[in-house]
Design goal:
Strand 4 and strand 5 form a beta hairpin. A five-stranded mixed β-sheet has the order 1-2-6-3-7, with helices on both faces. A two-stranded antiparallel sheet has the order 4-5. The radius of gyration is 17 Å and the shape is globular. It is built from four helices and seven strands. The chain is an alpha/beta fold. Helix 1 (8-17) packs antiparallel against helix 3 (123-139).
């Protein structure tokens, strides 16, 4: 008995992409967090939105992170045997409010694709995660597993504040999935070099 999405998959993606959530746009990230929290709450998750924290970062005076969203949903069927999945995503993008690249638009050269800040990295992944959870809820399978969802706001700068939280939550997970995009050919990404 889930409420039907008001604007649908593409509408939700367009709405979210049109909201600037550059890593340093703390106000934009703070305004975005309740939108994600609302979607997860509708799926029966207990959601907490932790405020951002000050951050020492080279060349950034008075830097601070955006909020950290942690949502949990316990299995309803045989909870003692339930598996625990950690789903990870991020709300920040590399495009700050002064960037010319701000709005969602269909790709004129590829009709099944869209352009916009965060379409791939990673508001698209957040929308896919929500719709996958909705599908599991609709089939009754969401109740069979424990889920923790973590959405951070410092990924584009290497997750300096959220990394310890991710590691802590991952300790109890049977599987952890980051809902960022696959490679261009569709291959699953299991690790990346660098940070």
């Amino acid at each position: 008995n889930l409420p039907r999405p008001i604007i649908g998959f593409h509408g939700l993606l367009a709405d979210w992409v049109d909201r600037n959530t550059g890593t340093w746009n703390t106000a934009g990230l703070e305004a975005f967090a309740p939108l994600v929290a609302e979607q997860l709450t509708a799926l029966g998750f207990e959601v907490s939105v932790e405020p951002g924290v000050p951050l020492e970062y080279p060349g950034r005076k008075d830097a601070r992170t955006g909020p950290l969203i942690v949502a949990q949903r316990k299995a309803q069927i045989a909870p003692e045997r339930a598996r625990h999945f950690l789903l990870v995503g991020h709300a920040d993008s590399v495009f700050e409010p002064d960037s010319a690249f701000q709005k969602f638009s269909p790709d004129p050269l590829r009709p099944r694709r869209a352009l916009g800040p965060g379409v791939v990295d990673m508001k698209g992944g957040l929308v896919v995660m929500l719709y996958a959870l909705r599908a599991l809820a609709g089939s009754g399978d969401l109740a069979r597993t424990d889920y923790t969802v973590l959405v951070n706001s410092d990924e584009e700068i290497g997750s300096p504040v959220s990394t310890p939280v991710i590691r802590w939550l991952a300790q109890d997970a049977d599987a952890a999935l980051v809902l960022e995009c696959a490679r261009a050919n569709g291959d699953f990404v299991s690790s990346r070099k660098g940070i």
